[in-house]
Design a protein that fits this description.
Length: about 210
């Protein structure tokens, strides 16, 4: 019998029971985009937040994007991608250091972030401003979900793990798949997991398919 698959993510997948793990609230701080050489985009939500601004203010500023998915979301706005990181915040440090320290960056971020790549880069003398353009909160759906004992649980962010654990426990009978190393670190000690080869939802499902 096929095990049910629960996907804890803002995005859905046709082969899973989709549990929207986060409710997102957008902010619109005042930003003078003309001050910056490049943007830093680490989520699709950051691109959605940009839709509140005049496209002409930012569309000619290329963005350093954390992953292929975040790059696609920025390109969908008409934006240009400077380069794509390895899917994790820590990989952006090396990318930023490929440019002169005189370069001015703007990181469009969530209220709470999992990586400290900005502080690392600043310690190394790089010029990065931060603008909080959204916040994420645990959704009511993830609080109330009833997960079957033999289910596969796919987590796509550290926050999706945290929100699940506020009201539920990961049982020994569950199979856990995570989208990347940062999400894996959010799991409780002693929980075994499978880590996708690429930081995409499809990669999580490809991993399961290969196991079967």
């Amino acid at each position: 019998m096929r095990r049910p698959i629960y996907l804890f993510s803002i995005s859905s997948h046709p082969d899973a029971i989709h549990i929207n793990s986060l409710d997102v609230t957008f902010f619109k701080p005042q930003i003078d985009f003309s001050k910056y050489d490049y943007l830093i985009i680490t989520s699709k939500q950051a691109s959605k937040a940009l839709q509140q601004y005049n496209t002409q203010d930012y569309v000619d500023i290329a963005a350093l994007c954390i992953s292929k998915q975040s790059a696609k979301s920025f390109e969908a706005l008409g934006g240009k991608v400077l380069r794509v990181g390895g899917g994790y915040g820590d990989t952006l440090v090396d990318a930023i250091e490929q440019y002169p320290k005189s370069t001015k960056w703007l990181y469009l971020r969530a209220e709470v972030v999992a990586s400290d790549f900005v502080s690392q880069s600043k310690k190394n003398g790089y010029d990065i401003d931060e603008a909080i353009v959204y916040k994420s909160e645990c959704s009511k759906v993830i609080k109330d979900v009833d997960v079957e004992d033999e289910a596969v649980l796919i987590f796509t962010s550290p926050s999706s793990v945290g929100c699940f654990l506020k009201n539920h426990t990961i049982k020994p009978t569950h199979q856990v798949v995570v989208i990347g190393a940062t999400t894996a670190k959010a799991l409780p000690n002693g929980i075994d997991c499978l880590v996708a080869s690429e930081p995409t939802i499809q990669s999580c499902f490809d991993l399961l398919k290969n196991l079967n």
